[in-house]
Write a structure and sequence with these properties.
Jelly Rolls
Length: 364
């Protein structure tokens, strides 16, 4: 199995990277830096790795802490690289576009690049400097990682964000960022993967998604940027907004209810029967929007955020229909807990492609 070694693997971008690496059957070893730095452990993680990726950094702290943290992290990793017996052929740095803007943070990131480039040269490794713009993605920390996380959190909790500085932002989804860091996407594709928006336009998009989603509807996801931004927003609505209630109309003839209203983009619907006691699923998606709706019978839908132990479960029934949308990067399954055959509808926002299924095995 291919193995990468990563600093900051427990942080926002590192979490996204581990979810992406798992799809490609790549193991991820964590390199300790900062206060938990252990030289022997760091050398062991780096030794024999196919790629070393440096993500860890300090971006919100006092100026002296920002400078010292980013430089110290880079120096700790550089010392591990020079000490290994089997150096990696590639060293990748999750740098920032701010590295050239003269700010305290930018200068610290630029110095980190110099330190790692020197270490890579000493061990004969290729050094790849990936200058990332503003990142957004599922489960970013509000008031810390990015304005998108803050806006999404505030909107999802019924608050009204305010725009203080309506500047233009270059935005990149975290899953696209990790594709660049891992080599799954060429660095030359960075420009086409990112999107420029003003802060006010970003807020307008998010509020538009919320308006649709408050009604249980799916906004137009024909554009990959809208899909990724919508997935980011809805990560802040889960599990509080689940299941999504559906109105059931019944009379002597039988019953009727709507499963999904989608306002644009491709989509695919499917249907399954499940025998009592049987579980389906045990996988996750990186980008796909998927909705489960029980039509008849009783089921338990269970979900677990990747690399956590907390499981969220919902019991649903065709007698009181409710839809559960699977958050991206959450393992999920559905179990027939009734005595009769379970009838379930599945809707996704894309057409299934066997060559690129975006369905990664992971038990709940």
């Amino acid at each position: 199995m291919t193995r990468f070694a990563v600093t900051g693997a427990r942080g926002f971008l590192g979490w996204h990277l581990r979810g992406a690496a798992q799809e490609s059957n790549i193991a991820v070893d964590m390199i300790p830096v900062g206060r938990g730095f252990d030289s022997a452990q760091a050398v062991g993680a780096v030794d024999g790795a196919a790629r070393v990726i440096h993500i860890a950094g300090v971006n919100r702290a006092a100026d002296n802490e920002v400078t010292a943290g980013n430089i110290d992290f880079a120096e700790q990793l550089a010392s591990a690289l020079r000490a290994t017996d089997a150096p990696p052929p590639v060293v990748v740095y999750a740098n920032s576009t701010q590295a050239a803007n003269g700010s305290v943070y930018g200068e610290a990131k630029a110095r980190g690049a110099e330190i790692l480039a020197g270490a890579a040269s000493d061990i004969g490794a290729e050094f790849i400097d990936v200058r990332l713009p503003n990142l957004f993605g599922e489960h970013g920390r509000p008031f810390y990682n990015a304005v998108t996380a803050t806006f999404s959190h505030l909107i999802a909790t019924g608050q009204r964000p305010e725009v203080e500085n309506d500047k233009e932002l270059a935005l990149l989804h975290a899953q696209n960022a990790v594709d660049l860091l891992t080599g799954a996407a060429p660095l030359s594709s960075l420009g086409s993967l990112q999107r420029t928006e003003t802060v006010s336009a970003l807020l307008e998009r998010l509020e538009g998604y919320a308006e649709f989603y408050d009604r249980g509807e799916i906004p137009d996801l024909a554009d990959a940027f809208d899909r990724d931004l919508f997935n980011t927003y809805r990560s802040y609505t889960f599990p509080a907004r689940s299941p999504i209630g559906l109105t059931r109309h019944a009379d002597a003839r039988g019953s009727f209810f709507e499963i999904v209203r989608s306002h644009g983009g491709p989509g695919q619907s499917s249907f399954s029967t499940t025998a009592p006691g049987i579980t389906r699923g045990d996988h996750y998606h990186r980008r796909k929007v998927e909705r489960f709706t029980v039509l008849q019978g009783r089921a338990r839908i269970s979900l677990r955020r990747l690399y956590s132990e907390d499981v969220v479960s919902f019991e649903v029934s065709g007698d009181a229909p409710g839809a559960v949308d699977m958050p991206t990067l959450w393992a999920h399954n559905i179990t027939n807990i009734g005595d009769d055959v379970l009838y379930t509808s599945f809707w996704t926002n894309d057409i299934f492609d066997p060559a690129s299924p975006d369905t990664i095995g992971e038990a709940v």
